Input
Amino acid sequence: MTRRPRARYALRAASLATALGLWQLLTSLNVDLWLRFSQFPTVTDVARAFADRLSGADYWTDLTDSLTRILTGFALAAVLGVATGVLVARSRLAEDLLGPVLEVVRPIPAIALVPVAILLFPSNEQGIVFITCTAAFFPVLVSTRHAVRALTPVWEEAVRTLGGGRLRILGSVVLPGALPGIFGGLSVGIGVSWICVISAEMISGQYGVGYRTWQDYTVVNYPGVFVGMVTIGVLGWVTSTAVELLGRRLTRWLPRTSYVPGGRPRTAVPRLAAPVAVKAEGNAENQPEAQHQGHDETEQEARDEHLV
Output
């Protein structure tokens, strides 16, 4: 068990090293078949530009500004998306009032809202946060809505039977049961937020990773452009991983299945109890049939547990 995680990490590191080595080889040899790798900077050029950026103050200012915009917009989107998703899923009146407006606005790309943000908000900073919030809002909303509607009504009826009210049902059934779906939407939303905040910074931002990347492109500083791309990728991976780890932490009570490569997930199947010896001859004849029936019930319970 201790070798398997190390082998997986080694395989991932080898995959990344292979990609970087292929990049270095194609660019250093100026390969031009159909794709023009001669126009690309090499890995060493990007590494030198990255080292130069790390030693300056502008890089850390850009990093701080982009992270502040992302975290602010994503936090607003998480609160508003979960609240609206639960409200629409639980109330027909809210669905009739808000549903048509949300479904019309949802297909509009967040980057297309840049002119709207410029007209609405007095500063570019507020407009970028608005675009980031809008980008993450709809994935969270849709995932929350589907997760709440997928809950079995038996749980809610059990709480009502014990005298629980709406708030009790919301805190004990709806939110805990919908947590896996909610965090699925949050994981998607944080990635979309990075895409849109970078695009918004390129158009109307002052400072930020996207703004700096666009400035490098305008002055034909291609190693600097790749420094911005690598920074965006690393930041997106870190924030998305943090959201997923938080989701696993808050859903530890869910049943887990062990992953078997190339096969079906394994679930723990309880052992059958030994049949009780019965003196009567008629009961002794029925023991194999009862044992077979108990085995079938155990397998069915294991499959149900896997589906949950």
In short: Residues 247 and 290 are 43 Å apart (CA to CA). The mean pLDDT is 80.
